[in-house]
Write a structure and sequence with these properties.
Keywords: Signal. By secondary structure, the protein is mainly beta. It is 2% helix and 50% strand.
Length: 505
């Protein structure tokens, strides 16, 4: 059943083009078929970089009818992911794509992107691909025959199709080689134009490398890491635009019936940024409030200099790989941190938060930190710690990821509850909330709106508002960090800082 309140402006808001990519796909006229009731399959792949999470719904009849055998909305699918392949009786359905604009995720409250009446055929996987700009989405449809080949098990083979959904108007060539070979030994799989899905190909279950070149060229623009195929299964290898930090123009997504594996370019660069959340403390006399950070062993020149407390460094572009980080005090030149392992996978953007935790000392090792039993810990020592996070790759225009980071070390509380309160809510009714323990992070997605943000802790049995802030999200907003830090100038010595996750891109 359909609520038309979100459907009326469909032709104005969205211009969706349905491309029929197989002769097996046909719009149904409601006629019966001999294969009704047999198994058909449907799958959604979200390849639109500025799209929110997308819901797929199936309905036999748009009229309100309690007797509908099938009226279902599946879990949402975010950018760069494909939903699991769903089994459905063969029939004619209204197929909808929609996103959640309001609090409710009920189908009648979703905002519709597209609606099409389709015949889902027996023993066929109907794959819907959402590509391009979500404001004018390109919706591609493909029918993939289900392969039930006993020889695949006997011969230890798998099935592979290639799909090109990059925005490049030229074709790409795809090669593969054994994992211990190079491009010189690679076999050409084929040349694939935009929106083209290949025929099925069979390969032995082994470890492979994939390569991408522009059509007709021998210059490799992309090479995967080793990819292991150990199951008799059907895969789609999708070529899409690279939205990460590396210079490769494309990445590959490997889609199976139940999972999506993102395959970045093996040689892609990485990016890293540092946040100095270390507070000046009498327990750390060699720290004066600013640090220099080195990411190369025995390097004489710092990558980051004079990074003050509660501030971010500039973003550093690095080759992917492993690094040994050391930190010295800018003024005293005393070493504060050494040999920290920093691992930067290809095509990723990481942020590293440094902070200090005061840890009770058991001086004689007997397990008692209050030797004189006066109810007071005898001594504390400072422990320098890190919190590492991988920044968001996609940037939806309708909803935005917020990572909440708690760097407040306080003996009166260990966790902070954060409430994102809309104009028609109060704290006790706010739906968007996260509880974050000191030294940890928690993420959530918030839709465009204005929020009053409250950081609340329980102290001696009473809830105390530590600090509050306002957050306005619109189409120009991106993924954000919300960082709670110690601030001696604030009323409860806690303040909130906001920072873009993709700053420096």
């Amino acid at each position: 059943m359909i609520n038309n309140k979100n459907r009326q402006g469909l032709s104005v808001l969205f211009k969706a083009s349905f491309i029929v990519a197989s002769a097996l796909l046909m719009a149904a006229c409601g006629s019966d078929s001999d294969d009704d009731g047999e198994d058909a399959y449907i799958k959604l792949y979200n390849a639109s970089p500025n799209a929110p999470a997308i819901f797929l719904s199936l309905d036999e009849d748009l009229d309100e009818d309690d007797d509908d055998e099938v009226e279902i909305t599946y879990s949402s699918v975010r950018f760069g992911e494909a939903g699991t392949t769903k089994t459905i009786p063969t029939d004619t359905y209204f197929v909808e794509l929609a996103w959640q604009e309001e609090d409710s995720s009920a189908r009648s409250d979703l905002t519709l992107i597209s609606q099409e009446q389709l015949r889902l055929s027996a023993d066929s996987i109907h794959m819907i691909v959402l590509a391009g700009d979500i404001l004018a989405p390109n919706i591609l449809s493909y029918d993939i025959p289900v392969i039930d080949d006993d020889e695949d098990d006997d011969l230890d083979q798998f099935n592979l199709r290639v799909l090109n959904i990059s925005s490049n108007t030229a074709a790409y060539d795809i090669y593969l080689s054994d994992s211990d070979e190079t491009f010189n030994e690679a076999e050409l799989i084929g040349s694939f134009s935009p929106e083209e899905l290949s025929d099925n190909l069979k390969y032995d279950q082994e470890q492979y490398l994939f390569y991408v070149t522009e059509a007709g060229s021998n210059d490799v623009v992309y090479q995967s890491n080793e990819v292991t195929f150990s199951l008799t299964a059907q895969y789609v290898l999708a070529i899409r635009d690279n939205t990460g930090v590396g210079s490769a123009p494309v990445v590959l997504d490997l889609l199976s019936n139940s999972a999506t594996t993102n395959l970045p370019d093996d040689d892609s660069e990485a990016r890293v940024r540092f946040f100095n959340g270390m507070q000046v403390s009498e327990l750390l006399p060699d720290y004066t409030g600013a640090v220099d950070i080195f990411t190369a062993t025995n390097a004489e020149t710092a990558d980051v200099t004079s990074l003050a407390e509660n501030t971010f460094s500039t973003a550093l572009d690095k080759d992917n790989g492993d690094f040994s980080v050391r930190i010295i005090d800018t003024n005293s030149e005393e070493k504060l941190f050494a040999n920290q392992l920093l691992s930067l996978p290809e095509n990723t953007y990481k942020t590293i938060f440094y902070y200090i935790q005061e840890e009770a000392v058991d001086e004689d090792g007997d397990g008692n930190i209050d030797e004189n039993d006066d109810g007071i810990v005898d001594a504390y020592r400072p422990v320098l710690r890190t919190l590492e996070t991988t920044n968001s790759e996609g940037s939806s225009i309708y909803e935005h990821q917020v990572k909440v980071v708690n760097l407040v070390d306080n003996l009166d509380f260990s966790r902070i509850v954060v409430y994102f309160v809309k104009s028609d809510e109060i704290i006790s009714t706010a739906e968007a909330t996260r509880t974050v323990v000191f030294g940890n992070q928690s993420s959530l997605f918030l839709r465009n709106n204005t929020y009053q943000v409250f950081a609340v802790a329980e102290i001696d049995g009473t809830e105390i508002i530590l600090t509050q802030s306002e957050l306005t999200l619109d189409e120009d907003s991106g993924p954000l960090f919300m960082i709670m830090v110690e601030d001696v100038n604030a009323e409860n010595e806690v303040s909130i800082q906001w920072e873009s996750q993709i700053s420096g891109l």
